[in-house]
Structure formats: C-alpha cells, structure tokens
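Milestone M4 deliverable, item 7.
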Amino acid sequence: MRIIHMSNSSIRPLKGNSTLKMPDDYVVIDIETTGIYPDEHEIIELAAIKVSDNKPVSEFQSLVNPRCKIDAFISKLTGITNDMVLEKPYIEDILPTFLAFLGDSHYVGHNVHFDINFIYDNAIRCRLPVPTNDLTNTVRLARRAFPDLPNHKLDTVAERCGVSAEGHHRALADCYITNGCYQNIKQVYTNSGVALYEHKPALSAKTFSARIPVSSENSPFFGQSFVFTGTLQLMTRAEAMQLVVDAGGICMDRVTRKTNYLVVDDINFTPGAVRSAKQEKALKCQAEGITIEIIPESVFYDMFGILYETKTKRGIKLFPMIEWET
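Output delivered:
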C-alpha cells in the first residue's frame, strides 16, 4: 500500500473556540485561495459581511495578489484569473484592513476553520495579531438540522434552505449564501423546538465494521487500536471511527493497555488545555511503560493520507488518498 500524505496541520493555540452558538450579531467570513494548505498556498480573495440584529449592515471584499500563478482549475472554479489579481494588493497590505473590519465579532462561516486557518497563519507571517474570536461552523449546524441531506456542501444546504446559490465560489457571494443558510437554520431550530444541544447516545465502537475487506498484508493499520477524545474539528467522530475500521484498524471506547493511539481534537491538544479522563489514563499508562501514542487529530488525518476537497471545500467532503496495491 502507498499513502499520499498531506502536510501536518499547524496547531493554532490562540484560535477561538468552535461553538454551536447562533448569535444575532456576528460577521460572516469567506476566502478563496490557490489551494488547500495554508503553508503552501495563498489567499486570492477576502470577504466578510457584518450582521447586526440578524441584518447585514456592511460588507468587505477584496481580491489579493498571491505573487504566484493561479492554476486553471482554481480559475475555472472561482472565476478569478491571473489578470484580475495583477494590480490588487498583496496580503500584507490588505489583511490589516480586513482584520480591523472583523473586529471582535463572533465568526460564522461554512467550514469556517479552513478560512480562519489561512487568515491565522497569514497574520503570523505579516506580524499581525492573530484572530482569537469564537466561531460557529454552519456545516455543523446543517448536519444537525438536515441529517437526511446527501452532503452538506454550501450549495446543497442552500437549496434545502431555499437560498439562491448564484455566484457560488466567489467569497462575497458565499458570505451572503452562508448567511441565508445560517438564518434559515436558526429558524428551523426555533420552529421545530429541537434542542441544538440535545443529548445523543454515545457512539459504541462495536457498531462499526469495515465496508471493504482489509488483510494484514495491505494495511499498516491492521490490528492497531484507536480511541478518540474531544470534538473533532474536521469530521465527526463516527466518520473517523469508520475510517479506522475501513483501514483494518480497531476502534475502542476507552483507553486500555491494549490501546495503540489516543486521538485528541486539535483544540484540546494545545498546551494548557484541560485534559480529558482518557488523556489522563493514557498518560498514566505511558508512565507505567505501556506504549500508547497520544496524537492530535491533524496527525491522525496525516497518518491516513486525508486530502481535503476545499475550494470544493464546502461541506467538508473528505477523500482518503489511499492507493491499495493488488
């Protein structure tokens, strides 16, 4: 088996909390980029709309000169060409104005982590204060509001919400589409009386079985046991557990002496974060000489060769880039 790895995601210790809050005052964010990795690719468009009492009151939009060629795929997807950005500001010239526009507002966005990670890393490179605002990911809201949808891409959710997706894949248009979906989802919860924070039965590792046959000869994860703790940022725990068993691994509900990997969500893996009971148990096992690796979710994705379909990013569609040799 050959695995094509993505580069490790950076840990961003000052990044705001991912919440399920649905405030009435917030700012919707969207960006377009030359690719999917903040450490390799560049921002080519920044946009945001400021919302007060559920009504848009101001907007920001700017193309950005990435100092590199925009490839044909991105141009076709977004409509942004090399000629369009030629005379536009560089990121270090426009990012301070953009961050000032965002201010201390609560962030809202569709797969907003993608956007914030790019903005965060560019702020560091430009020696600017990094964004620390809390955020709401409308993908998470849509998954709870519309579990029957085939996927939760922005255009799919927009169709369900009766929101026009005209201009999709341009940053400002996507801000307005996202805001329309966000407002609709808020109304769904209000009208249905469904509790956003309602208790759900805990996942059981015993319920997962491989969807494809995997043998010890073609999977490095065969027989390796994984435990998860915290709220993963880029996929549901169920999706992660299914990924493990599909690769021949084993999912466990709790840390034991037989656990090989404890996967901790990126936010709670940062220094100073409160440790979960599973983390404490894993650390105790390590102190006793038992081999258990404690890894952040970003490393877990890297292990499995996950590539994110971003700029088709909407809806966090994930593709394991695994080539099984026969």
